[in-house]
Amino acid sequence: MSLRTHYTSEIKPEDNGKEVIIAGWIHRIRDLGGVRFLIIRDMKDTIQVTIKKGEVPQDLLEITEKLREECVVTVKGIVKANRIAPKGREIIPKEIKVLDKPVENLPISISSKTEIGLDTRLNYRVLDLRRPEVLAIFKIQSKLVEGMEEYLIEQKFYKVFTPCIIGAASEGGSEVFPVIYFNRSAFLRQDPQLHRQLVVISGLDRIYDLGPSWRAELSHTPRHLCEHRGCAVEMGFIKDEYDIMRVQENLIVRGIMKVKKECGEELELLNKKLEVPSTPFPELRFPDVYDILEAYGKKIPFGEDYDRESELILAKYVKEKYKSDFFFVNRFPFKVKPFYVMKVDEDPQWARSVDLIYKGLELSSGGQREHRYEKIIEQIKEKGISLLSLQWFTDFFKYGAPPHGGFNIGIERLTMQLLDLSNIREATLFPRTPERLLP
RNA sequence: GCCCCGAUAGUAUAGUCCGGCCUAGAAUGCUGGCCUGUCGAGCCAGCGACCCGGGUUCAAAUCCCGGUCGGGGCGCCA
C-alpha cells in the first residue's frame, strides 16, 4: 500500500474533480501573498498545488508557511482542470502531511537554473539526481538496456552471470585491481571475456552478461572510468565475425528504438532528437584503413594500430561517405590484439577482430575467437605469455569447442554518445575514477 | 604514467596578466518583509568567499615554490 494514489504524470485535466494523493518533494514555492503555489516533484514529473487564502482550510496556510524546498510531503486534494495551470491541471489541497524536512540548507539547488560544475554535482550526486534533466539520463539508460535485452531474449540468448573476482589477470594490457581473497591474491576482472567463452564452449552457446568491469588505469579523460558496465554477448556456431556484427548492430538499433519510443519526455527535457541508425553499419577494414587515413594526411605505419586522432578521422570519413554515426573496424593487426582473437587463416597478419565506433568513440570490441586448441597455444606463445598462467582457460579447449565470437558494448559510453554528453561521468550514477571513490 | 590549464560566498562567477584604487562586484541561493494566478514570478532589506603550506615585498586574491583537488590532451581502453 503506497502513500500515493497517483504519480504526478498520471494526473490529467480530464481527472477534474477527482480526489488524489500525491507524494514527493517540494520542488519550488511561489508565494504571492494571497495565493501560494507549491510545485511537487516525484519520480515522474511535477504538479502544482494551489493554496488560495479563503478557499482552503486555515491550517493549510499555516502548514505551508513553514515549508521549504525539498520537504517531503503528501498532498491529498481535488484535481482541478485549469488552463492557466502547468499542463492544464492543478491540485486544490484538503490535507498536506510533512513526512520529512531538510535539517540544513541544500548545498546545491535542485530547482534553480544556476549551472553547477560536474565535480560539485558528483560530490552531491544524490541531490544532483533530483534534477529531472539529470534523472532523465538514467531513465533513458534503463530503457536503452531494456531494449537491448528484449532483442537478445527474442534471439534466444540466455542471461548469465560470470565472476567478477578472478584468480589470474585475464588479458594483459590494462592494469587490474588486486583484491585480497582470504590468504591469496586475486583481481577484479577487466572484462568478462574469457569466462563468457568458457560458457559458450560448455554448450550454452548464446549468452549475454550485463555487468561491471574494472580498469586500474590513471585515465584522465571524459571517456574513461575505473568501473564501467558492459553488455557482453557471446555466441557459438558462427560462420565468421559477420554473424556477431549483425547481432551487434541490431542490438544497438533495438536499444535506440526503445528509447525513442518510451522516453519522449526525457529526450525533450534533454533537448535531444534521436534517429534510429540504419543497418548494416558500414565496415572499414585493415589494411584499407591505412589508405583512408593517409588520404586525410595521417600516416600510420603498415601493420600498426591507429590512435585516437585516427579514430576521429575515420568517423569523419564514414559520416561523409556513408552518413552514418556508427561503423565497424574489422581485421585489426593480430599484433595489437589479445591472444584469443582468431586470425584470418589465409592472411594471418590480420585478425577477425572488430571494434564498433559511435560518433568517433570506441563503443565495443569483439570479433571471432580462436577455438582450435593448437592455434590458441601457438598464439599464446606468440604473445610471449606464460602457458601455465592461462592453462585454467586453455585446457577446456581440448574437449571440442565450436567456432564462436562476441563483443562487449560499454553501457556508459553508449549512453554518453547517444545523448551527446560531454563526460562519461554524466552517464554513471556513482562514477569511479582515479580520484573519486565516494559517494 | 606523461603534457597543458585551473582553484574567489551554498552554487556559478568578476577581479589575477601589470601587487596598493578590494572595506572583494553583479547573479543565484539563504533569512526577513510586501504582494490573490505564479510558472527561471516580482519588489525591498539583510547574510555569506580569496584551496592548504612556505617564500618575495612596506604591502599578496593577485608574484614564486611545494602539496591537494579539479578540467583538458595523450597513452590504455568499454
Features:
5-stranded mixed β-barrel; RNA-binding; about 450 residues; OB fold (Dihydrolipoamide Acetyltransferase, E2P); alpha+beta; 2 domains; elongated; 8-stranded mixed sheet; BirA Bifunctional Protein, domain 2
Can you walk me through this structure?
This protein is an alpha+beta fold and 439 residues long. It folds into 2 domains: 8-100, Nucleic acid-binding proteins (OB fold (Dihydrolipoamide Acetyltransferase, E2P)), CATH 2.40.50.140; 132-427, 2-Layer Sandwich (BirA Bifunctional Protein, domain 2). It has helices spanning 58-65, 118-123, 125-128, 132-154, 193-202, 241-262, 264-269, 288-295, 308-322, 373-383, 391-394, 411-418, and strands spanning 19-31, 35-41, 46-52, 72-81, 89-100, 158-159, 165-166, 178-181, 184-188, 206-214, 227-236, 283-285, 326-330, 353-358, 361-369, 404-410. It has an 8-stranded mixed beta sheet with strand order 6-10-11-16-15-14-13-12, sandwiched between helices. Strands 1-2-3-5-4 form a 5-stranded mixed β-barrel. Strand 8 and strand 9 form a beta hairpin. It is elongated and about 85 Å long. It binds one RNA strand of 78 nucleotides through strand 1, strand 2, strand 3, helix 2 and strand 11. L-aspartate binds at residues 171, 215, 365, 369. Keywords: Aminoacyl-tRNA synthetase, ATP-binding, Cytoplasm, Ligase, Magnesium, Metal-binding, Nucleotide-binding, Protein biosynthesis.
